[in-house]
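Proteins fold reproducibly. Consider a sample protein:
=====
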Amino acid sequence: SGLLIVTNFLRVSVVGNQVCRPGAQTSKTVIDPIPPEHLCHRPAESDFELYDLRKPLDKAAPVARDEVFSKALWETHFDADGRVLRVKELQDRIFGGGCAPDLRIEVWPFLLGVYPWDTTIEERAIIMQEKHREYDVLKNQWESISPVQLKRFSLYRDRAALVEKDVLRTDRALDFYKGENNTHVDDLYEMLMTYCQYNFDLGYVQGMSDLLSPLYLLFRDKVMAFWAFVGYLDLVESHFFLDQQRIQGKLADLSSLVYYCDSELYNHLEKEDSSNFFFCFRWLLINFKREFREKDVLELWEVLWTCPYNTDYTLFIATAILLQERGPIIQNKMCFADILRYINDLSQRLNLHEVLGNAESLFHNIRSQPDIPFNIRNNILHIADTPHSSLGSQHNAQPLVMSPDHVTSPDNVTSPDHVTQPDHVTQPEEVTPREEDHRDPASLLVENMSNMSMEPA
């Protein structure tokens, strides 16, 4: 299909014990050449492809979550002038257990760079005064554009139209944004247009409103929410570049991880023209914002912002979810359209603590393997030839293994938010045969992903 032509770079080739994308760097010496009988040539493709050369990683217990980082603990991290102390320890605690909900309004401005960690109470007050002034300047710039200017400013008109369209459909089911003539929706529009003025090169791209909405819901203050949003986009700005190279690279890395962990699942996706992993596009673009319940999204984002490992942790979260859901996908022989529908239907049904426990278990398990493929070592784990012991101790981890079977939580992993795994995971229901859909996968993707189409403004 057309989508496969565009995303053919996501195909995974294997040389020896290395997993690499076509064109990626490989080691200079192949110690164990692949026997011809292990190669399978598909006439429709230009490359030889390898199937089931490695056994899947074996099963492992998820890593248990720690206690929530509380306000009492937070208050022990300040000196007499209000500077934050022992920042690494604080970040590790948040990564392990998340923040208490009532503490986020105090901690998140530090996590997102609104306040430097080493500032005093007085210095932070001065910073906030300057942030208010700068916000007003930026806001006044776009609000003061005259009708005459507007006629000759097509880029501004396009951005304003796209922002207006998106805010009207962002989190409108939440009470905070519900109803007609909701001023909070107007505030989202104001902040996003102000960001266009702040970062004129990037402007506004669909999906950004999904990142701003939870911030404004938390802070209930436009200026603080705006600068927290600026800090967040500084971390993920490349997700929204129009060339999409960052997202494409992440999808390619996800493809490598899934192949390494579960070649049976990967081979099914390959057979169904789904190994481009475009059904995970929304996950990676907006950091799983639509996949979990509102309160769980906040904890997940804290984990991403405080991750102590030198890796893109979203890849391990995505892989953990796919390994959990492998059973229904394989057993029901899902095609691309079915996989896309199934993945979208997982929204709001995933158990965050189970996913996080499995993701961390998966990370440490892969990290401890003696035969880590070249591109996973270099491009994902960033460890090159460094001995794997240099990474440091695991977060509450036991000896770790994975298996092609979906991962389940052990009995001793409990949390207030723990919910029973849905029946569709452990006892997949048979997918009702669908009438053949002759649309190409790209059309199905656009239809199902709503405003995740990366439409530029």
Summary: Confidence is low (pLDDT under 50) at residues 1-53, 386-451. The chain has 21 helices and four strands. The radius of gyration is 23 Å.
